[in-house]
Structure formats: C-alpha cells, structure tokens
Amino acid sequence: MSTVAELWALQTTDLAVEAVRQRLTELEKQLGERAELTAARAATAEAQTELESGRAAQQKLDRQVKDLAAQVRAAERDLMSGRVRNPRELESMEANVAALRRRRSTLEGEALEAMLELDRCEAQLAARQSQQASAEATHQARQEAIKREAGQRLAELKTLSARLSQQWEATPPADRDLYKSLRSRKGGRAVAREQGGACQACGLMLATGVAQAVRVGGQRVFCPGCGRLLLAG
Predict the structure, then answer these.
(1) What domains appear along the chain, each with residue ranges and CATH number?
(2) Which residues contact 208 (CB under 8 A, 6 or more apart)?
(3) Confidence band of 86 (pLDDT split at 50, 70, 90)
(4) Confidence band (pLDDT; 50, 70, 90) for 32?
(5) CA 108, CA 164: separation in Å to the nearest integer?
(6) 219 three-state secondary structure
(7) 3-class SS shares of the chain: helix, strand, coil, % to 5
(8) What is the DSSP-derived secondary structure letter of residue 6?
(9) How many alpha carbons fall within 13 Å on the CB side of residue 197?
(10) Second label for 177, Cα 20 to 30 Å away, from 4, 100, 123, 155?
(11) Residues pairing with 195 in the sheet
(12) What is this structure's pTM?
C-alpha cells in the first residue's frame, strides 16, 4: 500500500504535467496570432490608398488649372487683338476673361489645399509604415519567444511524464483506483494538506482526534468535509 506522502508526490507530478500541457495549449493558440500586426498593416494600406487618392485629386486639379490658364491666355489675346470693336461684344469678352480668371483663382486655391492635404497624407503614411515596422518586429520577437518557451515546456513535459509513469507504475492497483476516483471527484486533487488542525483544501477545522491521527500517520485519514486524503503538513 502506498503512503499518503507517495500519493501526494504522485499528485504533485500529475498536476505539474497538467499545468505544462495547459500552457502548451495556450502557446499553440498564441503562435501565429497577429491581431495588432494585422491592424497595423490595414492602417498602412488605408493610408496608402488615401495618399494615392490625394495624388490623383491633385493631378486632376493641376491639369484643370493648366487648361484654364491656357483658356485665360487665349481669351486675353483675343480681347487685346483688336479684332472685335463692337462695345457689346468687347464687354462680353471682358466678362468672360474675368470669369475665367476667377475660376482659375478658385482652382489654384483648391490645388493648394490639395497639395497641403497630400503632404498630410504622406506624413500619415510614413507614420503608419513606422508603426507597422514596429509591429512586425514585436510580432516576430513574440513568436520567437513563444517557440522558445514551447521547446522548454516540451522538454519539461517529457521529464515530468517519465517521472509520472514511474510513480504510477510503483503505485499498487488499489491505490491507483482510489487516487483516480478521488481526483475525478475532487477537482483534480485527491490529497490535501493538514496544517494548523485544518484541511487546506476545504478549510474545515478538524477535530483534535482526527488531526492527531493525520500526524501520527499510522492510518489513512479522510477529511470529514471534502473527503480528500489528508497529509500532515
């Protein structure tokens, strides 16, 4: 028959194996995760699209300003050529030149605003690219750290599993059944420490005789509260 201390040691290794496996599962989920990186790349792409749209708008306005400037020059030459002498026609031509000049001035203002907006877009893109580069570096470093830890945990799991196997083989079948039964019914813990006259698992204050029986160690004592095996702490 195994001692309670041996079952406690078995449980300790068992819990350690479980904890390492859980951690490996967490690491596996984290491997490849890149929410922040995906967001940074999306932000860069958005800024790039905005910049391209701004460039297209500025180029369109530049062409319009150039075309309108040519129209103004042509209208001014026509007005100054002396070809037309009729006052009404001259007045109409002058009004047309004035309208073209006003339109040109408006377009030049819009072109200036577009140029300033383009500068903002370029600065924004540069900032987003810098943020993406930082996110890429952080992601890469994090993935490498996860892989390193996973390797360490796998080595740890191998050692713990070998120890658990040895402990399990050394445990008599009846004690294995008792351990498995308690562990499945008691939240993964078949054995609890007794310290200061209390069960450390459920907190029950033990009767004096029960606590003494645990400390003497001549027999197996179960906690009256939670039903776990008690080990003097």
Answers:
(1) 31-171 (1.10.287), 174-232 (no CATH)
(2) 197
(3) confident
(4) confident
(5) 81
(6) coil
(7) 75, 5, 20
(8) H
(9) 5
(10) 155
(11) 198
(12) 0.71
Residue carrying structure tokens 């040691």: 9
- Residue range 210-232, pLDDT digits in tens: 999 999 877 899 999 999 999 99
Residue found by looking up tokens 């195994």 in the block: 2
Paired tokens of 166: 């040895």
Neighbours of 168 (CB within 10 A): 13
Tokens 């029960």 — which residue? 210
Burial class (CB in 10 A: 0-12, 13-18, 19+), 26: middle
| Rounded distance between C-alpha atoms, residue 198 and residue 203, angstroms | 6
Phi, psi (rounded to 5 degrees) for 231:
-120, 125
Contacts of 183 (CB under 8 A, 6+ apart): 11, 14, 189, 190
3-state secondary structure of 192: strand
Tokens of 159: 């050692």
Comparing C-alpha atoms, which of 102, 94, 76 is closest to residue 110?
102
Residue 229: strand pairing partners: 191, 222
